[in-house]
Amino acid sequence: MFYDAxxxxxxxxxxxxxxxRLRRSVATCLASPFYGKRLRALGLGPxxxxxxxxxxKLPFTVKDDLRAGYPDGFxxxxxxxxxxxxxxxGTTGAPTAVYYTANDVDSWSHLVARCMHAxxxxxxxxxxxxxxxxxxxxxxGIHYGAERLGCLTVPAGAGNSKxxxxxxxxxxxxxxxxxxxxxxHFGHFLQQEGIEPGDLKWRFxxxxxxxxxxxxxxxxxxxxxxxxxxxxxxxxxxxxxxAFECAAQAGMHVWEDAYIAEIVxxxxxxxxxxxxxxxxxxxxxxxxxxxxxxxxxxxxxxxIPGECACGRTHRRLDRITGRTDDMIIxxxxxxxxxxxxxxxxxxxxxxxxxxxxxYQENDMDQIRVKVEIQDEVFAADDRTRAAxxxxxxxxLRDEILVxxxxxxxxxxxxxxxxxxxxxxxxxxxxxxxxSGA
Amino acid sequence: MFYDAxxxxxxxxxxxxxxxRLRRSVATCLASPFYGKRLRALGLGPxxxxxxxxxxKLPFTVKDDLRAGYPDGFxxxxxxxxxxxxxxxGTTGAPTAVYYTANDVDSWSHLVARCMHAxxxxxxxxxxxxxxxxxxxxxxGIHYGAERLGCLTVPAGAGNSKxxxxxxxxxxxxxxxxxxxxxxHFGHFLQQEGIEPGDLKWRFxxxxxxxxxxxxxxxxxxxxxxxxxxxxxxxxxxxxxxAFECAAQAGMHVWEDAYIAEIVxxxxxxxxxxxxxxxxxxxxxxxxxxxxxxxxxxxxxxxIPGECACGRTHRRLDRITGRTDDMIIxxxxxxxxxxxxxxxxxxxxxxxxxxxxxYQENDMDQIRVKVEIQDEVFAADDRTRAAxxxxxxxxLRDEILVxxxxxxxxxxxxxxxxxxxxxxxxxxxxxxxxSGA
Lengths: 437, 437
Known about the structure:
Largest interface: A-B, 43 and 43 residues
CATH superfamily of the largest domain in chain A: ANL, N-terminal domain
Function (chains A, B): Catalyzes the activation of phenylacetic acid (PA) to phenylacetyl-CoA (PA-CoA).
Largest sheet of chain A: 9 strands, mixed
Family (chains A, B): Belongs to the phenylacetyl-CoA ligase family.
Protein name (chains A, B): Phenylacetate-coenzyme A ligase
Oligomer: homodimer
Number of strands of chain A: 21
Strand content of chain A: 15-25%
GO molecular function (chains A, B): nucleotide binding; phenylacetate-CoA ligase activity
Number of domains of chain A: 2
Enzyme class (chains A, B): ligase
């Protein structure tokens, strides 16, 4: 039933395992330039950690710490122990790097294989990886996991829908990895090709790397004719394979044998009770090369209270509802793009693409939402469109507490993204930008 | 000195090893739909193979056999034994597929690691893979080999020169994998950025996947300030890692413990003596999932006679001088694009890009070579350019025995290819095309 026995471990045994591994991680971290200094300054060593909750004795690690430690300030092993690195960013901005030893790649692959097994994929199934490779951890991460599980892995890479379709058919693909915006795009491509959702053999899609709503997931399932499973990961915690839905599709089990997950108040940093939304903070328990202690993911989510029907004992994360740093402040309200997506996707007249534009008028910040609508609605009379427009404005205002300008546009007029979708176009010029700060 | 002991094996022991493995390959092949039928029809089994030369008892396997056997007519194991497949072609044309078991991926990775070790890379070196991933075997093939060797592998992927440069600098990269046309392009990018060849730490480039001349290799070495090593591979034989140069840069050792390599007359199919150019034919000796027997690679090359200074006993292949199927027949002469490249690259006035155009005039096939020339020559007076033009025409005529039209163009006017360079633009319309045959 499970890929490995630890999936059904009792909570008591899990706490003991976490404690042992937390101690080991702290011991390992003493060798890193960054943590070595920090731990010694605090007088903390492995002996100070006697329960998983003792992780709170540690200060947070933030993205800026990783930036300051670039390229190699977090390494705990000699250079020749490492066989891989991934980098988070391109030529601009301050990049961060994550390094992996052979053991790290091995345990990462194991976790990904466990995730794929949890959704129902098995050895011998055919699996097509429809995401880009290279520095994006979603490519190689899922690839290694699929091979580890024993799937016949088709490294299709991103884009080229026509070839993707040929591969899906020729090899009788059972499951795919695809990012949500491309999944929606590919669904429309299939419609154009006259392919019905049931024509393909596939049964499973792993979707991740982009925030998306429950409604978007159900659309993907309808369009593609399969079950779509949410995946959570971030490069700082290896990449994909951190938390994954099981067949119950009721939240993502975070692998607590490999990570300590906390939900904290993003302002005070205090722990929040199960069920409350806050910032996810993670500590690696199985990384030799570059452990991270209490890393603030900036992702907002909550633990789903209660037990899962599948029998796994690892707690479930709810879908990511936003990021602490993509919050838009407009007219004094805190708005998360995900709230807007959620409101739009609940309306069947809305086509999958939209764009949030932020601009200034009379020195005031303004928000406009461009929304693609279904062809039949777009072709309808003015009154029908005006009514839809009114409903959309009201719905969005209810959700974000600000009245946005709304523009209805023809389907296909917002360029579809084959990579991570860019949903916010911020044209505001602020004082601190003008001065070059 | 060697990555593994078999690199220095005596020829006698090698013959015994090849014979044993050839028998095993034939035995494995009996389970494949294609070979099972063929071998039984010929009454051949493992017992008929008592020396490596007995491979000649087998008929050739050609690309069209693989096409006819698509998608799975060559598999020798149950479906659930396979963990990877690569496909040779896109949406048009008849594709071919190569499948790998976990053992096959393992032995492939071992061979690639051996190649990288042979050029001088070592565990702990930093290695940037600057080629595309996905279905192209050059990406994952080199990646797995680099990790196997224990290099710190940076999966940069193709393109984005600015980011490539940042990675090369930030991580002190020692070696890269790069396709020759992109290496030349990247060299010019470095010049534009004001970077001298010696400014970067890198020492090794593995170049392959595209035919290129010795002159092109030396240009790459000068532009990049490193040693560039030729690599030979093809998806049907796994991908990269079939034959590789050692530090001596005097031909590519073909790993004869993993392959039986033959050079045959492309017309008669008869074996040619060492030193003569013919078509390379290969038999896999270490593949469980999809062995191929006497596969005609369509690549033209020769064995380099004599022993290599490095002490490796595996014979060396000369660089690929053309393909049996990219030969252009023009005015009754057989012309290989590589001959034209060779002639052009020998002239310092020529910039790295060129294009061969084939067209028709008065119902006759014509050839025109567009040649990018260095800026200072392009900016010179008419007389200088006319003199260069005359020398180029004469040089090409001497090489291909046909007088081509030659057009000198400004550097940068032929779009640089970041993928495999397309050097021939064939605009001829032949009768059999017109009729749709």
